[in-house]
Amino acid sequence: MKVxxxxxxxxxxxxxxSACLDSGIEPVILDNLVTGRKEFTEGRAFYEGxxxxxxxxxxxxxxxxxIEAVIDCAALIVVPESVAQPLRYYTxxxxxxxxxxxxxxxxxxxRFVFSSSASIYDAGxxxxxxxxxxLAPLSPYARTKALFETALEDISSTGDIRVVSLRYFNPIGxxxxxxxxxxxxxxSHALGKMIExxxxxxxxxxxxxxxxxxxxxxxxxxxxxxxxxxxHVQALRRFDLFLPADGGPTYQVINLGTGxxxxxxxxxxxxxxxxxAPLTAVEAGPxxxxxxxxxCRSGRAGELLDWRPKHSLEEGIRDTLAWFAKRESVIxxxx
Length: 335
What we know:
Elements lengths: L1 E5 L4 H12 L3 E6 L13 E4 L5 H10 L3 E6 L6 H6 L1 H21 L4 E7 L10 E2 L10 H17 L5 E7 L1 E3 L17 H11 L3 E4 L11 E2 L1 E3 H18 L8 E6 L5 E2 H12 L5 E4 L10 E2 L3 H6 L7 H14 L9
Parallel strand pairs: 1-2, 1-4, 2-3, 4-5, 5-7, 6-15, 7-12, 8-11, 9-14
Antiparallel strand pairs: 10-13
């Protein structure tokens, strides 16, 4: 099997590509390298360019006629940036995404796996959500994910393509072999900020301390990126079982999380236990577009994908630290 991975030079896309390779699936990478890294494409078929570039997508399919599915990990993902630049986010995440789907359909590919986000949910009082939970995306980033999901569901209803939207919770960790990992210089998520604080000696800032959670800090479901990557492999292997080509549903949503909610303060404690020393923390108000958060409550991934996460929160922290210690020998952060 061959699979085209759009955004396959980014953190999650490159890890998915590694998991595919390890499983005997050949990845073909399409990435414009706005945030992705060319170093993550070494040894893999790679095309530098935009997902909206129809002639390029046509060339990829012509040169790789064995492509049986597409995984779409191509998106801008920084919530505060989406508040400041909504036009850019709607252009990149929605308008170009719709163009890309059209190019995929034109080339006869009928299996599409979309990297969506649990940030689109309206979490209940216990902050646990399943796939039937109401949606209330609060940032332009989250709204681009929800809007593109709506478009994909409508497009799939024609029978021209079948789509599974994998709604990620909060990825941490790295490829256990440290082939790839988080590539951005200044990460915006909590664990990356903790590592940044550790390296700089500056305090870690808890953004938002008045949420209605058990300790006032935001709550998240931290899932190891290698577990996420394995879920994509399972989605490819089992795609026709839950979205058969000969009739039935054409669209499916699956949550990918651990089922455990961890607050920022609890993550800080876990980080200290792994690292062996506590971080100094200060408190601040929430960032633009922030929300209290949510965690996964679902058995659908187990039922449809035969997938359950295997890595603990502490393993995710440990692998993230290992990657940050190595990444400057893998990628050039000066450019």
